């Protein structure tokens, strides 16, 4: 049996309509900008399926009615084959590799930002051999017995406590009760 035929395909993402654009050569190392393309003149429109096949992922651009493959991007690590553009959350650049190692860079765009966001989250393959990192233990910010803290609020003066003799003095302060008696002693 063919090993590839036995691999299980899981659909990670499906977009019923994406547009593919011709991308001009990159002018800087910073990245691509969708503003440099003519986003009104796409070269192809169709369906995008993102599949997890064994240890790799495949982005398949297909005709929505016939299923005919327009282009496919296969990767294990997506960062080199899928690159978001710098100036929009709806557009990406895909590195498509053909037979003989030939590479082509094409733009891909979504009509809705929500679909683009879902795509960005879906095209990272899961790797069952990589254990999940444990979460850091929560920090304890509670005050321990005897600990105090002081908050200084800019623009506000600290109020001085009123005298213990009541508010009848000439200080004009707020009325304050005398401190409670020590434990075991009654008033």
UniProtKB/TrEMBL annotation:
<dbReference type="GO" id="GO:0006897">
    <property type="term" value="P:endocytosis"/>
</dbReference>
<feature type="domain" description="NECAP PHear">
    <location>
        <begin position="8"/>
        <end position="153"/>
    </location>
</feature>
<dbReference type="GO" id="GO:0030125">
    <property type="term" value="C:clathrin vesicle coat"/>
</dbReference>
<dbReference type="InterPro" id="IPR011993">
    <property type="entry name" value="PH-like_dom_sf"/>
</dbReference>
<feature type="compositionally biased region" description="Pro residues">
    <location>
        <begin position="177"/>
        <end position="187"/>
    </location>
</feature>
<feature type="region of interest" description="Disordered">
    <location>
        <begin position="121"/>
        <end position="187"/>
    </location>
</feature>
<protein>
    <recommendedName>
        <fullName>NECAP PHear domain-containing protein</fullName>
    </recommendedName>
</protein>
<dbReference type="InterPro" id="IPR012466">
    <property type="entry name" value="NECAP_PHear"/>
</dbReference>
<dbReference type="Pfam" id="PF07933">
    <property type="entry name" value="DUF1681"/>
</dbReference>
<feature type="compositionally biased region" description="Gly residues">
    <location>
        <begin position="164"/>
        <end position="174"/>
    </location>
</feature>
């Amino acid at each position: 049996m063919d090993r590839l035929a036995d691999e299980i395909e899981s659909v990670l993402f499906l977009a019923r309509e994406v547009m593919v654009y011709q991308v001009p050569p990159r002018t800087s190392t910073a990245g691509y900008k969708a503003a440099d393309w003519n986003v009104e003149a796409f070269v192809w429109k169709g369906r995008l399926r993102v599949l997890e096949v064994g240890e790799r992922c495949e982005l398949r651009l297909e005709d929505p009615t016939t299923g005919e493959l327009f282009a496919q991007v296969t990767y294990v690590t997506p960062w080199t084959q899928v690159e978001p553009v710098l100036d929009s959350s709806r557009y990406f650049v895909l590195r498509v590799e053909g037979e003989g190692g030939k590479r082509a860079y094409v733009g891909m765009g979504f009509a809705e930002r929500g679909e683009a966001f879902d795509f960005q989250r879906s095209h990272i393959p899961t790797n069952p051999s990589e254990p999940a990192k444990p979460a850091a233990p929560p920090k304890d910010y509670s005050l321990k017995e005897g600990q105090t803290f002081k908050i200084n609020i800019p623009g506000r003066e600290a109020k001085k406590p009123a005298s213990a003799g009541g508010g009848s003095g000439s200080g004009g302060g707020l009325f304050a009760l005398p401190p409670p008696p020590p434990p075991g002693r009654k008033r």
